[in-house]
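sorry for the late reply, my laptop died twice this morning and i had to redo everyting from scratch. anyway the thing you sent over, i finally got around to it. pasting the sequence first so we're on the same page, its 289 residues, then the predicted structure underneath. double check i copied it right bc i was rushing
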Amino acid sequence: MVIINSVKELKDKVSALRRENKTVGLVPTMGALHAGHASLVSRSVRENDATVVSVFVNPTQFNDKNDLVAYPRTLEADCALLESIGADYVFAPSVEEVYPEPDTRTFSYPPTDTVMEGAFRPGHFNGVCQIVSKLFMFVEPDRAYFGEKDFQQIAVIKAMVADYVSKGTEWAKRLEIHPCPIVREADGLALSSRNTLLAANERAIAPNIYKALKASVAYSKNHTVEETKQQTIADINAIEGLEVQYYDIVNALTLESVTSWDDADHIQGCITVFCGATPIRLIDNINYK
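ok and here's the structure:
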């Protein structure tokens, strides 16, 4: 496995792979890797001749600078994990390498980037599009892999790629976006780099988020969308130390809120919960149909 710090070296390595007609998979990450990330990388290794994993805490997607400072950074452990599962290249650049000058590009794909996380974290998805588009330009991968825990992020990235396709961008025409299932702890908590920030008592209550989501699926069979939404919020808020920031039940393709279970063929519930005194912000989602 090769660790790369510069954009030039990354492009040179990928160009060499292209000359050999090898397929390239990309797994963008912000590090602090866990089994969820490992599942993405393992899939890329199976499906491509070479796999590039980026490890970069992207400053432009943090609307809370304290959150940026607190985000865990474990590059040495990340590289050990990646080597053990067969990654070929790790791209671990500095902020200055990725952003030699301020990125003033703006991306707008409503409603996918304006609802839920988009409403509560202004500028977040613009920052996501800035870094992911840069990585796509650097690597020009055949396939890119993203975890479905960030359900809304995948919708935004798909919209961005479609935008580049409409503009005739060659790398976008070839690129396939592959969503991958959420990986959970045995108690149901969705794996997240932020879980390492949870104190023991916070970690103990966090699985109640998924417990409530699972219960809501059964509840939904005999209740309206609004009743299901309110019951889920009430169940989670009843746990001391948990507070729902938002919960919405949406069309899984457009991310627009639904008011009836007949409004869409695929419906997803998306939630963000504050956990603990700090608090740590946890996201999760579940499919209703």
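The two ends are 41 Å apart (CA to CA).
thats about all i looked at so far, will dig more tmrw
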